[in-house]
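This section describes the prediction task in plain terms. A model, or a person checking by hand, is given the sequence of a single protein chain and must write out its three-dimensional structure as a string of tokens. No templates, partner chains or ligands are provided. The sample shown here is typical of the held-out split.
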Amino acid sequence: MTADHGKDRGFTLIEALVAMAVLALGAVSLLSAAESHTKRITELTGRVAARWVAEEALTQLRLGLEPEGRGVVMYGITFDVDYDRAETTDSDVQRLSLRVARAGTDQTLYVLDGYVDSGAAS
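The expected answer:
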């Protein structure tokens, strides 16, 4: 009796190595895509928090209060708020431009323009 050692009995070592290389490339691609997605979500969270900080500061200015300006914390992120006032053609209204950046950086994450009663802005 002879053993049947036909060609179709299994994978060769080369075929197994090629299959593992293809799986490794797929895993690296998936990891890279997940890392990129996480980075975009983190950046988006920062911009949303910066928008809320700007809206809160504009509301404080409309109420005649001075916003905190430095060290405003939202979502555990610390922001700095700067704003400029400008006169309009209506003497009772001032234009405000608010810029929100992460604390300690000059990179503006959100800009909000709004209007306020001149009596409340002073």
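For orientation: The first strand starts at residue 72 and ends at 74.
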